[in-house]
Design a protein that fits this description.
The chain is mainly alpha-helical. It has a domain at 384-431 and 447-546. Helices cover 65% and strands 0% of the residues. Helix 3 packs across helix 4, helix 4 runs antiparallel to helix 5 (103-118) and helix 11 packs antiparallel against helix 16.
Length: 570
């Protein structure tokens, strides 16, 4: 017998003994030699091309039985089983066709029974991501629904282990996005900081997260929720009420009966669920996060999440169909004002939300007409807070830039126009924007005045653009802009802009050149009167509105000729 054959027999006996009812049966991972033996057997099967199928057939029954015993021992582990199970899963993926073994149930069992308990172990987490990256193509082709189903569990890997796993996680991330996970994935990404806070609180209250399944918390929460609801019905107290010192640590702990808590800590994708941000549990989490120093883990996820959103939005614009993107935009609008209360994090996330929303409108202007109702609702909230004001500004720009969805959506354009009219008249009749207190300091007054002027400028521009797209709205646009021009409000930029637009409307060709985008949206031809500068070298360009540059009055101030602005032949 050769040395290679002796090694094979030795490793096979090791696995066979562990798979039987031996001293290691309750926890096979406690045998330090077993992992090495399984790895060596897998290597033998890969290297012996001539006898590969025979070797695989001999070792498979022992490997499969070992997998089942390892899963059964997870309820009372003495050491992590994740690494051993990943090696066995690799064997199933490599040789499943030879022994007719469907790896899908085994993979799902690993996620549900093992990774849900050991995601906080940095070694298991890193090995899991490496396993997913090595087998990425095979998993996406043979098991396309696996990663999208378990994306909440995989997000726990990056939430708990942070930047050291970011590079590997970004490689896996595209596999998490599918038609079934596209919408639920977005709120889970945005809420990663709150997930970190929730996991940290679970660890403080229940001990180490390694080896204990958070799913057990969800199962035990049902009786507590029932008792809390009964208490609320009979005594009037809420689920979040609690006795004791309000300043104590216990008063800020998460109520396990809170539905948002259960939603945050789930392991599998069960669809898009509404997250009630006014619930007592979430309010306690956010207040505690504001009043206490941020942990290193929380700081890392606040930095990682915007980069994950970048990848998510890139995938959305490249791969997602219009129906999914159209359904996502109202979710973006709703979450714009409900983010984890960290100043830099809110800025980075909101910037990405708005950029993606505007890019979506640019790609499919019909979305504006289809989403008329949520857009009108957001315009009506322009006074509520600075972030809602900014959202309303961007929506005003999009409505005007894309003509309320285009020339084929006249009814939607008219309703959007009416909402802009209402917003305009409300601003003209009130000098207060945002918080409406009588006594305010100078800084707040200046900020509010600047916000009101900016909002008015956006609304005026949107009204002028809509009337340019839809000529039947011109009379109403003239009336609205005329009121602004005559109002002579303190900020001259507002009434001067209204006056300029009124002047442009007297010359339709110039109005089209200025107020209609020079690059048409997909499926929409150039509007008549739009200047095509690329034709300037061979064709005469008329209606060039030099006089509006810089909003200067009187003779033109420029000193340049046509060759300076028209492309030259090379």
């Amino acid at each position: 017998m050769s040395d290679r054959e002796r090694d094979w027999d030795f490793y096979l006996r090791t696995v066979s003994n562990s798979a039987r009812d031996s001293s290691f049966a309750n926890d096979p991972a406690s045998d330090p030699s077993l992992l090495h033996a399984v790895k060596k057997l897998c290597d033998f099967c890969r290297q012996e091309e001539k006898y590969s199928e025979d070797l695989v057939a001999r070792v498979y029954p022992h490997i499969n039985k070992l997998f089942q015993r390892s899963i059964a021992s997870l309820s009372q582990p003495t050491s992590p089983n994740g690494i051993l199970l990943l090696v066995i899963l690799q064997f199933f993926l490599d040789f499943g066709e030879v022994v007719l073994h469907d790896a899908d149930p085994s993979l799902r069992t690993f996620f549900r029974s093992c990774l849900s308990r050991e995601f906080a172990d940095p070694v298991v987490a890193a090995a899991t991501l490496d396993f997913l990256n090595v087998n990425k193509n095979k998993l996406l082709f043979s098991f396309p629904n696996l990663l999208p189903q378990f994306f909440p569990l995989l997000l726990k890997l990056i939430a708990w282990n942070g930047e050291k796993l970011e590079k590997a996680f970004l490689k896996v991330f595209p596999g998490l996005v599918s038609p079934g996970s596209f919408l639920p994935l977005f709120p889970s990404l945005v809420d990663l900081p709150i997930l970190v806070v929730a996991l940290e609180k679970v660890e403080r209250s229940s001990g180490s997260l390694i080896g204990s399944s958070i799913a057990s918390i969800q199962k035990s929460a049902a009786p507590e929720m029932l008792l809390a609801l009964m208490d609320e019905a009979y005594t009037g107290s809420t689920i979040g009420d609690g006795g004791g010192d309000s300043e104590s640590e216990e008063s800020s702990t998460i109520d396990v009966a809170d539905p948002v808590f259960l939603e945050l800590l789930k392991d599998e994708n069960d669809g898009l669920a509404e997250r009630h941000w006014t619930s007592p549990g979430v309010a306690a989490v956010l207040q505690a996060s504001i009043n206490s120093p941020q942990s290193d883990r929380l700081k890392q996820i606040l930095s990682i999440t915007p980069r994950l959103l970048d990848m998510y939005f890139t995938i959305a614009l490249h791969d997602a169909n219009n129906s999914l993107i159209c359904a996502l935009i109202p979710i973006l609008m709703a979450r714009n004002s409900t983010l984890f209360p960290d100043k830099n994090y809110m800025y980075e996330v909101r910037r990405r939300l708005l950029e993606f929303m505007l890019a979506s409108f640019q790609r499919s202007p019909d979305f504006i007409a289809l989403l008329k109702k949520p857009i009108v609702d957001r315009l009506g909230e322009a006074y509520d807070s600075p972030e809602k004001t900014e959202l309303a500004l961007q929506l005003c720009w999009a409505v005007g830039e894309h003509g309320g969805g285009g020339g084929s959506h006249k009814d939607a354009a008219r309703e959007l126009f009416e909402s802009l009219e209402l917003l305009l008249y409300e601003n003209l009749s009130s000098s207060r924007l945002g918080l409406r207190q009588e006594s305010i300091n100078s800084d707040s007054r200046n900020f509010r005045k600047s916000s009101q002027s900016r909002l008015l400028c956006f609304v005026i521009t949107a009204i002028a653009k809509l009337a340019t797209y839809h000529r039947e709205l011109l009379p109403r646009a003239r009336v609205a802009l005329g009121k602004v021009a005559r109002s002579r409000i303190s900020d001259s930029r507002v009434w001067r802009r209204a006056r300029d637009y009124l002047g442009l409307m007297d010359d339709p060709a110039i109005c089209l050149s200025v107020l209609v985008p020079s690059q048409p949206s997909h499926g929409h031809p150039h509007n008549p009167g739009t200047v095509n500068w690329n034709d300037g070298g061979t064709k005469m360009i008329a209606h060039i509105p030099f006089y509006i540059l810089g909003e200067q009055e009187g003779p033109p101030f420029h000193d340049f000729s046509f060759p300076d602005i028209l492309p030259r032949r090379r």
